[in-house]
Design brief:
CATH topology: Jelly Rolls
Subunit structure: Interacts with NPM (via N-terminus). Forms a pentamer with NPM at a ratio 4:1 (NPM3/NPM). Two pentamers form a decamer.
InterPro entries: Nucleoplasmin (IPR004301), Nucleoplasmin_core_dom (IPR024057), Nucleoplasmin_core_dom_sf (IPR036824)
Subcellular location: Nucleus, Nucleolus
Main location: nucleus
CATH architecture: Sandwich
Low-confidence stretches: none
CATH class: Mainly Beta
Organism: Oxylabes madagascariensis (white-throated Oxylabes)
Number of helices: 1
C-alpha cells in the first residue's frame, strides 16, 4: 500500500498507526521527503517520533530541506514500525512525504519460514580446489 501525507504550517504532524488488535506485522517505509509548490526558502525540519525498546518516546530528525539547496531527500525506504508520527519541527512547508506500508500476516510469515528451512536442507555442491 502506498503512503502519502503533507506537513504544513497548519498541519504540523501526521500519525500513522494500526489497529492494536491486528496481529499482523506492519512495516512502514519512508521513500521521499520533498518540498512542494508554495514552499518558502527556509529550513524545513521533519522529525520522526516513535518509541524505543524501553517504550520511551523519541524524536529523530530525518530531513532538513531548503528550497534553494536541498528541496528533496531520498530516504531509500527508511523502515519504521507503527505507530509513528511525522512532525514538521521547523519551517512552514508544505513538505510531502511518500512511502509504502506492508502488512505481513502471521500465516505468511510461517510460510516464508518453511521456504527458508527447505532451502537450508538442500545440499550444496562441494567446493573444488582452484586450478593452477
Amino acid at each position: 500500500l502506498l503512503l502519502g501525507c503533507e506537513l504544513t504550517a497548519s498541519t504540523k504532524s501526521y500519525t500513522f498507526q494500526v489497529d492494536e488488535e491486528d496481529d499482523s506485522d506492519h512495516i512502514l517505509a519512508l521513500s521521499v521527503v520533498c518540498l512542494t509548490d508554495g514552499a518558502k526558502d527556509e529550513c524545513n525540519v521533519v522529525e520522526v517520533v516513535g518509541r524505543n525498546h524501553e517504550n520511551q518516546e523519541i524524536a529523530v530528525p530525518v530531513a532538513n530541506l531548503k528550497l534553494s539547496c536541498q528541496p528533496l531527500l531520498s530516504l531509500d525506504n527508511f523502515k519504521l514500525q507503527p505507530p509513528v508520527t511525522f512532525r514538521l519541527a521547523a519551517g512552514s512547508g508544505p513538505v510531502h512525504l511518500a512511502g509504502w506500508h506492508r502488512i505481513m500476516h502471521r500465516e505468511d510469515a510461517s510460510l516464508e519460514d518453511d521456504d527458508l528451512s527447505e532451502e537450508d536442507e538442500e545440499e550444496l555442491p562441494p567446493i573444488m580446489p582452484a586450478k593452477k
